[in-house]
Structures are given as structure tokens and as C-alpha cells.
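new request in #modeling-help
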Amino acid sequence: MSPANIYHSVKLGFDSLHWAYIPLFIQVCLVISVIALVSIIIAIIHIAMDRIQMRLYAKERENISKEVNMLLMIAILNPENGEPDLSFDYSLKQFNSKPISRTVTKQVLVEGMLAYRNNFTGKIAARTRKLYLSLSLERDAFKRISSRFWETKVAALLELYNMNVPVNKEILLRLVNDRNKRIREVARLSLIKYNDSDPLQYLRDLDEPLSKWEEFEIFQVFKRKTNYTLSEMNGLLSLEKDPTVVSLCLKLAVLFNQQSSIELIKTLVKSPVIKLRAEAIETLGLLHATKLEDYLVSLYSTQPHEVQLSILVSISSMRTGKHLDFIENEFIRSNNFEIKKYASETLVKLYPLSSSVIDRLIDTSKSDNLRMLNYSLNPLINVA
Amino acid sequence: MISFFDHFFRLYQSGIFIYCCLIYAIYSVLTLLSYLSIVAYIKRNKIRDDNSLIRSSLAPGISIIAGAFNEEMTIIANVRSLLTMNYPLFELVIVNDGSSDKTLDILIEEFSLAEVEFSYNYYIKCNTVRRIFRSSNPAFANIMVIDKLNGGSKADAINAGINASSYPYFLNTDVDCILDRDTLVKLIQPFMDDEKRVIATGATLRMVNSCIIDSSVLVEARVPRSILPVFQEIEYIRSFVLGKMGWSILNCVPNVSGGLGMFDKDIVIKSGGYDPASFGEDMDMLMRMRKYMCETKQEYAIRYIPQSLCWTEGPSTLKVFMRQRIRWGRGIYQIFSTYFNLMLNPKYKTLGLVILPYNFIFELCAPIIELLGIVCYIYLIASGLIYWPYALILLLFVYSFSILITILALVWDQLMVGRYPLKEVLRLCGWAFLEPVLYHPLVMVFALTGYVKQLFRVKSHWGQMERKGFLKIPQKA
């Protein structure tokens, strides 16, 4: 078949083509091809238009940002006044002469203020908040809480949260039962933040697992509370509660050095969740629950591997030096690499109480054990 | 006899057409799902403040593990760039995989490394570890260098790194990859945020070939100027932004790239780590991780994020490209010869019912079916049985739909922060029209070559990636 023949046969074929006589699948392919080609053109135009729009928008924002940042700097960082300098006309009218929307200006203003709140504490943060309230910017945020879009609601709640503007408790209690997980998270965070009398009640009422991220956020909130005493964790440090909630409460117990929770934590040592059991035992160590050291050592032989490791870690935290023989025994006799490693690290952490044991082991240990001891003693190596 | 062949080819044509329609239907669904996935990610990202994690004392530690083989030219810059990660708790484990040049000596001198008596345990099998180094300079306290005998593959090096790492998560990357400063913070998010236990995450890889780099930090992103890397860039965008983001929402991601992936160390060790004998070691390990989670009846997820976090040098010569694709072809063939028994097994849930069947039919078999389709086409032309109008319409259908999928991938890519200037993006769109004609046939041929080599067990080795190096910022006189 020569190219000329092919050309003729193609031309003949297309000339004799009638839509009605084309098989259905060819018709469908033709239609799809046309749609595809048109879509390609639209998509490329869309990319170009979108980028041009974005560039224009970015330029507008840059211009507004310069002015807004200057104003904020003067108002908030002004060293002469203790209060934000309200002699400047902060009315948004001054931006109306430019072809930009008030929404964009407000957005840039709020973002600037949030940056100050997130990066400064003390007077500067307080001044920023006062300026925010003076300009009534919180009204917009309160309106957006009623938005039907979850991301708008969450952004509004976070804005008020970061500006330390309390939201009505009833609104938050309603949002804490919302269908959307993110809304529930932020509402719960706000409730915990603004309730100083019993923030833990919102964890007591919780019947779903906490994500690790939420754990960070809640932990930060508690960390920042000033003049706060953690209330009793009855009902929280319990086998009935979700392990993620219990895990967070264990960390809070350590943060606030809540000695009264030791007995509650002891009950968690019987948890069927191995990870939680291990964490509870480590928490007892961090709380220096030395009275329970003998109890933990007595449990050791019946526990799974992960829990055994946590018992060794706990002993090293308690620093009593009572069970050096036990640790030495584990180091020498265990065939498990991790048990030996943790035992040797425990001995090193108990120095100088364990100095005689370490010296003896260095003198008597052979290759692998000696290597492990030297590994644990080496300050260049991070001890887990 | 002639009539039999005619009937056979007509039947085969119909089969190919149905196959093609199925692939396009799946890609259409993936296109929609990837859009939803990207939009969901953007919304989630807006409300998650990375600083919460960076400032938190509860942030989990991450080990960055990178293998190095004969990298004396760039190792210092690469290591320094990895040390700039914006994360509160991480260590850098460099595995010197039996380099014959001065890689190790340079590292020792630059970072004040001293040999330490390290109690090393072979949780995962790897070739002998000779020495381990830590830095005596507190500024580099989080660097560890492992000197080991060459294990013949990157997989062996990474296994050695995993054995020595301290933290519960590790990032697998190549030492010469340029990583975004926020790589760790972004990749750890799914582990912290998902309702299921996330065992691996990945992100989009891009070509660094014509980008401007300064001290291993990306200064300006540019579309590659050479023809092969440009096509690879398009392929990566389609594969990561469209394919993997679509699969991620269904929790059916088949593979987390070896160039950039974060993993749950505990699950990796329990699954046996990377297999040095595998040509597709990243996909192979993920299969074993999935298999392990199914067999132990644990809920899990593998997630992808649509951000470009890693920039890697792609092969710019045909020889190196061919070697890479043959290896990938061998890899995928090997995967199916190892895991074929899991296919359609409901015990393995999405692995057995979706991932393996899809990859078998539409990834492994695709080059074979394409080749037979081309042979069929040639036969029909040669025997005069072809009806040109319909043939050309079908060709147009296949071509236009392929381009549409690629262009949509580029549109979705713009939803994230647009790294490339508009002109560069339009260049990519232009090259997309030539990809099915110039690039795709090469991919098909090299994949088939890989299958044949694997079938006949032809010996092969990883080979050395020829590096052209990065474009630097021009120095002012």
C-alpha cells in the first residue's frame, strides 16, 4: 500500500462517510474526541487565565500588605505608647480609593495581626488583640461561624481562638457535636482554652478517638495555661476511656506533676492495650512513683516485650538504684537485643548509683556486651 | 486460513478497543478523585498550622536515611541541605555503600566524624556494616554515617540505615535529591492526622535537571530543557498528581517512590524491609507492608500529598533512561511473579481486589497489549483490510483522550503552589502533545525488554546514574 493509495482510500472513505451509517462506537469515539480537543483548549486557556489572575491578585495583595504592615508596625510596636496608636485613621475607607475589595484588605490585616499574635507574647500580643477588637474585625469572624462551609467555620473559629476572643459557650457546645470532625476539634480546643475551672470535662465527655494532631494542640493549650492546677482525672485515667484520651491525660499528669493521679495510673498497668500499658508505666517513672518500683519489677517477667522495655525506662526515671541487680541480670542473661540495650542504658542513666555495677561489667563483659556498654556510655550517641 | 486470521484480528481489535475504553474510564475516575483529593488537602492544609507541630514537644522523631555511593563531588552540599530541614527532632543517617572514591573521607573531615563503638543489630538483613561514625561537633550531633560493604543495590543501604535509626519514622530519599525544607513537617502530617494508622506517605517528585540550585537548595524551578527529562516531568506529574492522588483517596496507592517516602519503621521491620534482590524494591516493600497489615488484621492507610517536595535528577541520555526503564520493567514483572497468589484474594482486601488486578491488567500487560495492537494494525494495513476513516477516528480518540488526561494533570498541578512561571507551564503543555508519539513508544519498548530479561533471568545490576550536576546561580564578576 503506497502512501498515495493510502491517501486516496482515506479521502474516498471520508467522502462517503454518513453520520447515520457510522457504527455507534465510532460515533461515540468521534464525539469524545471532539469533547477532548475542546476540553484541552479550555484547560490550557484556564491555566493561562488562572495564572494571570493569580499574578494580579498577588500583586494587589503585595501592595496592600506593604501599607498594612507599615500601619501595624507603627500601631503595635510603637514604643512610646502602652496602647495601640489609634490616632491613625484605621478606617478601611483609605483603601477604597484603590481597585481592591474590602474583603481582601481585611484578610491581609487579620493575617498580619495573627502573625504578630503567633510570634510575640506579652504587651505586643495584647496590643494586637486590642487593635483587632477596636477595628471590630471579630464581627466578621463571628458571622463566618454560621457559614455552611466547614472550612470557613473552622478558619473563623481559629481566628478568634488565636486572637483570644472568647466565643459564646453555647455556640461551642453546639459545634462540638457537629458532623464535621475538624469543626468538633477546633470547638473542643476553644472550650478547653477558655475554661479554666474544669477544662478536662470536655475530654470526659469525649466519645471518639483523638488524632495525634489534636493531642498536640490540646497539650499546647494546657502548657500555656498560667496559674492553673490540673483537676483530678477521675473518669479519664480509666480503662473505659478511649486509649488516645488516656494517653493525652498521662502526658498532662507529667506536665503538671500530678502526684495524686499515681493510683489511677496504676490501674492502667492492667490495660489490655499494650501500648497504653507501656505508656502508663513510663509515666509512673516520670512522676517518680518510687513506691511502685517493686511492683513494676514483680510484673516484669509476665509482661510482653514492649512493656518490659517500658519498665526498664521507668526504673531509670525513678533513680532509686534499688534494683541494680535486676537490671544487671537482664543485661547479662537476656538474649533479646533491645532488652540488653535498654538495660545498659538504664545502668548508665543511674550513674553514679550504678558506678560499681558498670565498672564490674566493663571488666567482665565480652565482645557484644562490652560493645553495648561502651555504646551506652558514649556521649556522642543519642540515648533513646 | 486467511478468513481465520481476519476473524482473529477483528476479535482482537474489539478486545483492544474495550481495553482502551476501560483504561480511559479508570483514568477519568482517577482524574475526578484526584481533584477531590487535592481540594480536600488544600482545605485541610489551610487550617493546620505547621508551627503547632514544629513547636510541640510531642513531635515524633524522624530519621532521614539516604544511601551514598561515589558521591564525592556533591556529598557535602547534599548533606548540608538535608540538615536544613524545618523540623524539631530528626537525625540524618548517611549510608556509605562501599564507595570507591573519597565520599567517606570527605564526610569525616567536613563534619568532624569520629568512629564509635555502635551496638548494631541486624533487624533487617543487609551486607556487613564495617564502621559507624558520629560527629564530635555538637552542631552536627544529629548526623550518623554508616560505612558498609556494598550490597549491590540501594535497598541494602537503606536497610542498614533502618537498623541503626533511632526514631519511629524514617524518610527514605536519595542523597542527591533536593528536598523542600518543609518535607518532614508535610509528610508526617498524615501520620498524625488520619483516622487509620498510616504506614507510609509520599509526595510529588519533580525533575531538577534545569533548575537553578545553590548549595543544594532550590533557588528557581524550571522545566527541563532536554527532551527526555521534559517527558519524564510530564509523566511524573500525571503519575503523582493524577494517579497517586486519585488512588490515595481510595487507599489503593500501589507504590511510594524510593526517591521520597516516609514510613512507619516498626511495620517496615516487621515486613522484612527492602529486598535487595528486587528491581522494584519500593513497590515490593509496600506490597509486603500491606500484606503484613492484612494478615495481622490491622486497619491501615497509605497516603499521598500533592505538594512537590523532592527534586531529583532524571536520566538525560537515552542509554541511562533505557537502563532505568528496563529495571522498572523487570521490577514490575518480579512483583507479579512474587505476589500473584494474592490476586483476587479477599483476605488482602484492596491489595488483592484492586491494586494487584489493576496493576496486572493495566500496567504489566499494557505494553504487551500495545505491542500486539501495533502488530495487528500493521497486518491490517498490509493486507488492505483497514478502513481508514474509522482507523483514523479511533487513533484521534486515543490520542486526544491521552492528551486530555495529561493536560488535566497539569491543571490539577496548578492548584498547588505554581512553582513554574506561566511560560514554562505552557511549554509543558506543548510537549504533552508529542509525548504519546515520541516518548511513550520508548517506555513501552524498554518495559517489554525488562520483562524479557526478567523472564530469561538475564543478569543485571543497578549501574551508576550519570550526573550532569545542577545549574548554579551565575556568579557576578
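bot summary: Residues 2-47 of chain B form the longest helix (46 residues).
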